[in-house]
Amino acid sequence: MGALERMMMRKGDRNPIQKAVLLAGTAAASLMGAVAFGGYAKGRSVRAQAVVALLWATRRRRRFESAENLKMAITKNRMAGAAPPPKSVKRRWDVTEEQHHGARVFLVRPKAVAPKGTILYIHGGGYVFDLIGPHWTIIAALAEATGAQVVVPLYPLAPEAAYRQGFALLEHLWTGLTAGGAPVAIAGDSAGGGFALALAQRIRDAGWAKPAALLLFSPWVDVRTNDPLQAEIQPHDPMLFMTGVRQAGEMWAGGDDLQSPMVSPIFGQVDNLPPIAIFIGSSDILMPDACRLRDALASVGTPADFHEYPRMFHVWVGAPVPEARIALGDAGAFLKRWLHGGA
């Protein structure tokens, strides 16, 4: 078990899904062995195989399979609220909370030393679900790798709000974070990845201080979610289903054009952006749009690192699997390079 997994398994920090995943992965490795279970031969580790099996068994994507399921899942999510920072994060970093524009914003800072830059982290959840436990895993890994402070806004969610309210908060945060001239990177997963790209485009167009880098995990860059290739991937995606994902995007648009760059940033200009790293799994229905973004960036010469993980699922970087350690290591190195002057 690696350091990241040990952190997630500490008493009081683990949630039932993480615990089940870890136990399932260990059992699979012990009982069946890497070769018998497929190991990396089929593109996924033993632990990742166990995670995928658990996701299918618990019908994780059910919340996106119909409008009624999505509505019920949103109601349940509001009752639960955002996942608080776990004890392991509080032990390792100073964690404080502020209020900005009526929204909660977490600040995760190194203890006893000055932070080396800032990461604005925008969490995923289809723009309708709040921050969950695995997001803290990603946040902690990036903080550890870079020595930066991580700013985590709990932005307004749909359907109670729409993208304009979300942008009002993040634009306010951005101007404050960059006022002193220190480097600030933007990172996000899923909807947060799409939001991160849209925010970077907005920052460029407004002439504000440019982000040091842009890190996107499984980014959702076209809320229409109507690519025929997505329908081909859908039977293999244990996390997402096109019907509900598209409806969540419509909620975030709030009646505006789904092809507005502030809603679907793939339709915005992608030149004059900071260095970008994209991480995507091939069993994710968002894969085709991530490839479209990669190709658009290449066409205008915007530097971009594209990391495709065979048969990995949506935002696997938050799961206790070897592929997450590898991806988070690469992501952390990417951010560190640009936050520390591009060295």
Automatic annotation (TrEMBL):
The domain of life for this entry's organism is Bacteria
Entry GO MF terms: hydrolase activity
Domain Alpha/beta hydrolase fold-3: from-to ranges:
119-317
Which UniProt keyword terms apply here? Hydrolase
Q: Which InterPro entries match?
A: AB_hydrolase_3 (IPR013094), AB_hydrolase_fold (IPR029058), GDXG_lipolytic_enzyme (IPR050300)
Q: Which Pfam families does this UniProt record tie to the protein?
A: Abhydrolase_3
Q: Which SUPFAM superfamilies match?
A: alpha/beta-Hydrolases
Kindly provide the name given to this protein in its UniProt entry. Answer: Alpha/beta hydrolase
Which organism is this protein's natural source? Endosaccharibacter trunci
